[in-house]
Design brief:
Length: 348
Amino acid sequence: MSTLNSEFLEQLFTQYKEEALFGKWITLNDIEELFRKHASLFIVSKIGTSEEGRPIYQLKIGSGQKKIMLWSQMHGNEATGTKALFDLFNCFTEQCKELSFILENCTLLFIPMLNPDGAQAFTRVNANNVDLNRDAVDRVAKESKLLRAVLEDFNPQFCFNLHDQRTIFNVSGTTNPATISFLAPSEEETRKLTEGRKQTMNVIIAMNDILQQQIPGFIGRYTDEFYPTATGDNFQKLGYNTILIESGHYPNDYNREISRKFTFIAILSGISYIATTSIFDSFERYFTIPNNDTIFYDVIHRYKNSENDIAFQYKDEIINNSLVSSLEKVPEKSLNGKIGHHEIVFES
């Protein structure tokens, strides 16, 4: 079992948080300078370029036999995992002695920004409008080819696929937003519990146990419906145990700075668990993590006649080189059972 407890993990985040990164829009320009300070302990290398020619980097550290590969921002507008990775990099670069066991037992490979073109434009897709998370079979995108090449060359035992999820999600049976959600992807349509999936579930259980001590009731689980072209499903099918982490909303945390902390804690608790565990066979408690549901909108206007209630969602876009969020009306006829992260009540 991991030797890192919940309180200590939170202390690490406070101590090593990368202050140069903040907010939802993180681009290659924001992180490229940061690679320099990590080159003293990490092997930092350019592994390829994006469709528009932007460099894609990997960082590698550790000498252990257990190989773990982590990547973020395959969707360019999902940067919470990227921020959390740089917080983790600081822990290693500043040689936090309590984490030395990880580097002794594991070799870690990180791709902190797989889709720099999408990051620059703040879009989900790459420069050719390809969703990299649905390109694992055809691999028409340069970035998809690169990810597969690194995967096969490194041959990891575990992968961490880092994403952001929308503000619409709640933890089923509660009115809590799903701040962190997990998934052990299926390998085929029957969702068979293969040995690989059981091992993936086992690590997720360990991460969930830590997070439930800090934000009980704010952790959800995605449906394990099989997606034939998805990255996680195909990597799991190929024998690479793939843990999906979706960083979500926390009350009043639209910059994803609080969920950043819990993403950091999830990643580090998962890595430390892998480093100190030899048998990953217990999986049943994975299914006690509640499913995600969708009861939220960002803003709801409430009227005396509930049939007149109106829901809004924020739309993020880059305008004049700034990230601008504006509310857009949702074409929802009935808001029964729906909740607004913010609600405005009108008397008339």
